[in-house]
Design a protein that fits this description.
The protein has two domains: 49-128, Alpha-Beta Complex (Type Iii Antifreeze Protein Isoform Hplc 12), CATH 3.90.1210; 131-273, no CATH class. It is of the alpha+beta class and 274 residues long. The chain has helices at residues 3-33, 93-97, 125-129, 212-224; strands at residues 49-55, 70-76, 101-102, 117-118, 135-140, 156-166, 172-188, 205-210, 226-231, 245-246, 260-265, 268-273. The chain is elongated. The strands form four sheets. Strands 5, 6, 7, 8, 9 and 10 form a six-stranded antiparallel beta sheet that branches. A two-stranded antiparallel sheet has the order 1-2. It is 20% helix and 28% strand.
Length: 274
């Protein structure tokens, strides 16, 4: 064999050896610190559950509970509230709560708490629905003075007073003023919640949620004129932080900061405000 062929074979053998070493090192480094393909592993863990009493559907404030409004549903035992009604210890609670009144709105699947319902037989259902510091005040209404009867419990309304006033010259004129804004309706007659089958409640008495001064204002307004209720949009429920606001005091003065104007008629001054 010629010396040239021997040299070529030696170079080829060396190249092959180097290529093999390079491949081995690449594979080794990839396995040690290279890209690792994650492998998902699903582990099923059995969670201990108990059955608790929950709302079967959305329940508004004032709703009278029936057996169809409640159901037993599984609930993780480790997150169980001691106030929940459980099937294991209070199996008769569904029957016991039937006929109770919803004090705070409940949502579908929400566990029932004693603080959120007024159980049947308890005195003062209306008092339980009132927020702290507020009063229930009833006023006479008619479909004509209550948005055609479409005002329902838990709606928000403005209270409008229409009365006759005498000018200094003795002439009478009609004056209409909004005396209260964003008042919550507690009940229409003795209905504490809307009736799903009826689109409107044509009642004769509306019960309003007011503070003490506002109740006094309504009592005075009923003696001086006729009251009407103007239905507000549900989007305005957060107006004035959800509380009713008086726009007039017991003396008939405007409380909203609207400027009052002095009007002179035949040399006599009168103060008017809008």
């Amino acid at each position: 064999m010629s010396p040239l062929r021997i040299v070529i074979l030696a170079v080829a053998a060396a190249a092959a050896i180097m290529a093999a070493l390079l491949v081995r090192n690449t594979v080794a480094s990839s396995g040690a610190g290279g890209t690792v393909i994650p492998v998902e592993r699903v582990v099923e863990v059995e969670i201990e559950q108990v059955k608790v009493l929950v709302a079967a559907s959305d329940l508004p404030v004032g709703h009278l509970l029936t057996s169809d409004d409640l159901k037993w549903a599984p609930w993780p035992k480790r997150t169980l509230n001691s106030n929940y009604y459980t099937e294991a210890t209070e199996r008769d609670s569904m029957a016991a709560l039937t006929g109770s009144v919803v004090r705070t709105a409940l949502f579908r699947g929400e566990p029932i708490l004693p603080q959120k319902v007024v159980e049947k037989g308890d005195s003062g259902v209306m008092a339980a629905l009132l927020r702290p510091g507020l009063r229930a005040m009833s006023v006479e209404i008619s479909p004509e003075s209550a948005s055609g009867g479409f005002i329902l419990p838990d709606d928000r309304v403005d209270v409008i007073l229409t009365r006759m006033v005498s000018d200094p010259d003795g002439e009478e004129r009609t004056l209409t003023s909004t005396i209260l804004e964003n008042v919550r309706i507690l009940a229409i007659d003795q209905m504490l919640s809307a009736i799903e089958e009826e689109a409107a409640l044509a009642g004769s008495i509306a019960t309003l949620e007011l503070n003490l001064k506002q109740a006094e204002l309504v009592a005075m307004a009923e003696r001086t004129g006729e009251l009407s209720l103007a239905l507000r949009s549900t989007a305005d429920a957060g107006f004035n932080d959800g509380h009713a606001r008086a726009t007039m005091d017991l003396n008939g003065d405007v409380e909203t900061g609207t400027p009052r104007i002095t009007v002179y008629r035949r040399g006599k001054a009168t103060i008017e405000g809008s």
